[in-house]
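Standup notes
- HV: blocked on the assembly model, inputs below
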Amino acid sequence: MAFGKGHHLHLIDGSAYIFRAYHALPPLTRKSDGLPVGAVAGFCNMISRYVDGNGSSKDAPTHVAVIFDYSSKTFRNEIFPEYKANRPPPPEDLRPQFPLTREATRAFNLPAIEVQDYEADDIIATLAREAREAGGRCTIISSDKDLMQLVGDGVEMFDPMKNRQMGLAEVEEKFGVRPDRVVDVQALAGDSVDNVPGAPGIGLKTAALLIQEYGDLDSLLARAAEIKQPKRRQTLIDFADQIRVSRDLVRLKDDTPLPITLDDLEVRDPEPEALMEFLTRMEFRTLTKRIAERLKVEAPAISADMAASDDHAPPPDAEAAAPFDHTAYVTIRDEAVLADWLAAALEQGFVAVDTETTSLDEMRADLVGVSLGLAPGKAAYVPLGHVTGGGDLFGAAVRAEGQMDVDRALALLKPVLEDPSVLKIGQNMKYDMKILARAGIRVAPIEDTMLQSYAMHAGLHGHGMDLLSEQYLGHIPIPIKTLLGSGKSAITFDKVDVTEATRYAAEDADITLRLWQKFRPQLHLAHVTTVYETLERPLVPVLAEMEMAGIKVDRDVLSRMSNAFAQKLVQLEEEIHHIAGKKFNVGSPKQIGEVLFDRMGVPGGEKGKTGAYATGADVLEDVTTLEDSHPQGALLAARVLDWRQIAKLKSTYTDTLQEAINPETGRVHTSYSIAGANTGRLASTDPNLQNIPVRTEEGRRIRQAFVAPEGKVLLSLDYSQIELRILAHIADIPALKQAFREGLDIHAMTASEMFGVPIEGMDPSIRRQAKAINFGVIYGISGFGLARNLRIPRAEAQGFIDRYFERFPGIREYMDQTIAFAKEHGHVRTLFGRRIHTPEINARGPGAGFARRAAINAPIQGTAADIIRRAMVRMPDAIAGLPATMLLQVHDELLFEVEAGAVDETIAQVKAVMEGAAHPAVHLDVPLVVDAGRGANWSEAH
DNA sequence: GACATCACG
DNA sequence: GACGTACGTGATGTCC
């Protein structure tokens, strides 16, 4: 029967329960692995008492739901970015418990509802309205005064803290007005906890008086001029807009899009088995026993040494988990079996997912199969695109037997992979998300074991699955080579026998699930939960979108350049052979060295450790200065440098980029490694679009091939001097910070401070030297390095450095402290808490020098990387309404494609996000400044 | 697959 | 006193 008259809906404010439970109980951890579970225990206790209470109540609900906040970010942040901005982030040991409280809710057979971009209060408002309109009753179980606006017409509140019913009378007592005017009073009074501004100087009492007198907020604002008290009158006139925004913030949205209807919320009997499973998994001894008695079932045994305890002993290293048994993996060949596995995933709220394809290039790969992992040792493979070995008479691929229809399988997978209540766990999920997105499935929400490892172990080792499995599970996975072979004879995954494929693919899902279970409780022990949750995990869908968008590249521009380069190379080659007096391979550094230093007798050749002459650009540049003593050598060196520049541009850029254009999209799709660079930077591969030439005129022309489609414009926004600003902040250098605040030329300022020359009319070479020193500091400067960079005597370079340290003593201090910290802890941290390990810091020999400089550089480079990561995570929401797409990231630059009409608005939005990216997690003493450029191509925009 | 070289921030 | 030195990446070509 549909929800209506005589029905009674209970809406439980789940988020409030969690925080109350957290603060009411001492820190409690699961004995077996140290997972914090205190809030979960308290939450279960509250829910259990609630359920018991209903059993003995005459007014028991017919329908019930537990409502949660999806995240702290909602549509209200669009209206007013500062909304709830002064709320501290949830404690580290609470964060991992959020998903567990959803699991707990489901274990009690109660629906857990959360909706992205909306607060729990909005969902409550929506369901309360629906219940009211259907003619039923609704009780909101919460102490939150913000919900009082909903009271009336069959909607009541019950305050579980005070254990009392809240009706019209209680609302009027609290706000002085009827529920429908509560938002007006709140809009005027504001709320310092939620950072709702309201009207300055007006509190609850005055607000209530004003609304009583004028009827409602709009009338009050319209007639503000009539108010007698001059100060109050002026405030209402001056802050009218702010008051209206405040009302938008406090007014609950009762048309939130919901994944369920009222009828889905009918009260269900508990399922003892599922509940017992959850409680024992949490290792709650007393609670399990108590609830088992209540349900009249046998309580599963939890041994004393397994029970949750509040000691903080680290989780044991030994693996008690199921062994890896490849024969236990299941091949799913029909819909019913797949449906069973998916139902189990839905039930438990998480599933490991892995896709198998024909290529590592996600934009060209075809889906071959999907594997699922539910529990250690319990994994399955769904073959979808396997073909038989030989092919038919004409060599065409023949679909292997025993595979279910691809479209049917995808249709079954889609609702679960997109279900907000089911976590999809993957290793490098960006890959699988892109593959599945091309099959029409938008996977969410996700977890990524690669990124969990990166957050905890950056700098210690890589984060590939094989490595993680061996290191943390003590298990060496089946090498992919044994299935595909290697080299020229390698086959693609669709040619692999299904039985073999099942072992490999299901194992991957199994490993991923086990790694997740192992890593999840460890994140907070390493104090990187916030890093993982705010800088790694949310970046995955953002990067996936960017990579799938790609950037348009004009093939003709590149092709013409390639042809011109080819001609030029032939010409240079002939000239070089002529000067040398013999033909040789100009591309071989070894042969260049022999020609130059042995055959032609140029002095100063130095052999490296491999016995070959060094012929790098710096060496050849020195040779070109020998015009007087060795004109032929100087000429040859100059021509080789020219040749190398053109050869580089042609082979790496103008030729290769043409091949990288995707024939289907006509665009180039790079791939970003999120866990590649130890410092938190991204790395771009296949092709690398983070090193497109810009420094020379010739090279810059390649950027003209990166274009916006007809009617659109490319936008480039980049942080100005971000690393130096971070250095000024971290090392706390007053002169540098002041200079950045005043928008001065920082290198000129440095030169002026160091050499005592005025900034006006400064010799450009002085400024250049200061600039080199500024950068040197970021890299962990040495006299030798600076001397080589500036080509000045070492003693002079050392003198510069000494003077720099003298003038800015905070730099020395920062360096010493950073190295000391690294030596003590084995890692350094960025301002956002990212850990970068420095395992070599206590080594002896030259390695220690490298490690020291890397340790000095890492917090600076890493903080800059964190800042742009935050900007990127926030960007999709910030530009959601605009015809703009984020395409590329180049460390301190973001590139967008936008319709010509929306350029200014997009720049304003993007700039605001980038310049404010550190807030509110980190407060910098220096402003972040972003420069913007636009154009038909990347060269113009930059 | 190691090495040298060179493109970027 | 000697040692080897700017930080972080990826792609290409040579050579073994």
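- HV (later): unblocked. Residues 737-807 of chain A form one domain. Chain A has a mean pLDDT of 92.
- Next: hand off to the docking folks.
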